[in-house]
């Protein structure tokens, strides 16, 4: 089979992976606090796959993905339980897997008056206990540092945390991140809470759509090249035999 087919196959596999990542980014970009992923590529020396060892051949393959932690734009909702973070901090929530970090700030009250995310994860305070409001029906006031005031009573402080090494964050479902507890510290004044706002996804929907179309076209071109190489190989085999 022609040497070029290996390069085409590697390229098609890489583009297929990029299609998956970009499609997921586009589908989730309206999720509050969503952070898009990027595909990392690497160039590989491919002499081992080539018949002509006198010429170095190179092809691309996926080295992995990483999450882009850049902030998304803030959108005003007016809902006192919608919270956005301006800065590098995270909310801390209790999930079935244990404490996790998130930038998603759409919260509500459960039947016990505790604040929960749309996925049912409990929003935690600085004492790692759930945040609960007294049953007086008054709307809370949450200031820039995460202090929660209902009426004239302070009912808690949000556990706004920052991470020492972003590369140690492991992205999980529903916009949550896991990391080693030693990588977490209480946020400084560099992170501010904005009540009545949510952080939108950090992807550009128009640009992602363009990338999706371009990647699909590139993949289709590589796929056609593979089919051409296969046809040529079959014809050569018939002629030789």
What do you see in this structure?
It is a single chain. By secondary structure, this protein is of the alpha+beta class. The chain folds into 2 domains: 4-69 and 202-240, no CATH class; 74-199, no CATH class. 25% of the residues lie in helices and 30% in strands. The chain has 2 helices and 18 strands. It has helices at 4-28, 205-240; strands at 37-45, 58-67, 74-76, 83-86, 91-95, 98-102, 107-109, 115-117, 122-123, 141-142, 147-150, 153-157, 161-163, 170-171, 176-178, 184-186, 192-195, 197-199. The strands form 7 sheets. It has a 5-stranded antiparallel sheet with strand order 9-5-6-15-14, with no helix packed on it. Strands 10-11-12 form a 3-stranded antiparallel sheet, with no helix packed on it. Strands 1-2 form a two-stranded antiparallel sheet. Strand 10 (141-142) and strand 11 form a beta hairpin. Helix 1 (4-28) runs antiparallel to helix 2. It starts with a helix and ends with a helix. The mean pLDDT is 86.
